[in-house]
Description:
CATH class of the largest domain: Alpha Beta
Largest sheet: 5 strands, antiparallel
CATH architecture of the largest domain: 2-Layer Sandwich
Strand content: 25-35%
Helix content: 25-40%
Amino acid sequence: xxxxxxxxxxxxxxxxxxxxxxxxxxxxxxxxxxxxxxxxxxxxxxxxxxxxxxxxxxxxxxxxxxxxxxxxxxxxxxxxxxxxxxxxxxxxxxxxxxxxxxxxxxxxxxxxxxxxxxxxxxxxxxxxxxxxxxxxxxxxxxxxxxxxxxxxxxxxxxxxxxxxxxxxxxxxxxxxxxxxxxxxxxxxxxxxxxxxxxxxxxxxxxxxxxxxxxxxxxxxxxxxxxxxxxxxxxxxxxxxxxxxxxxxxxxxxxxxxxxxxxxxxxxxxxxxxxxxxxxxxxxxx
Length: 285
């Protein structure tokens, strides 16, 4: 979720739930009181202007949903209670784009004077752009299979799909032409989790990582993830060198021409227009 996109909030404070969560058997058997604080990030303006509850999220239903979920399940850790509850709320209430959730446990088995212990987390739907490419076998079918796998994943919502284009190979030029495209998605997966899912889909389509920039049945790359700047051993966001790749910028400009690179602050349209002539003219096969 890009910063500032959903600034309106619906707040639920001190929702009391009697449930059975804890590491010790007596906690699971006897149960205890938990208190829930939740902030739902959404857009309340349509409902506010129309005075229409159907355009908003019914906080009474959210309270009932959280209560029933916490009472119908038993977990050892309140970290798990918070994680699973936040996840289910985001899946069940489509207008809720983000969630702050605190689970407070005032009756925790601590043999010392204390007020309560709690776990507080923030979870949200994230916007991401996934570049797709293939130049082995039936490339368009590989891409169609990848799209189908993404659509089956309940943690991913495919919002837009670009037209496919055929381009000349990049890097190692002695190989077949590529078919390239772009997916715009929303996801509950963290960046590394999303990368793992993309690798799983690649492997299903027979991807083998033998040669850098070499031929492949399927290539799925995270180009942008919100406005995140991130680097780990396995993943860099925004994708390295994306601003110099016609086969990335062209389909991306179809879906998000005004999306700004979080480091250079240039729009996709600007980056595409600034490509050298030799990277645009003649790049499409």
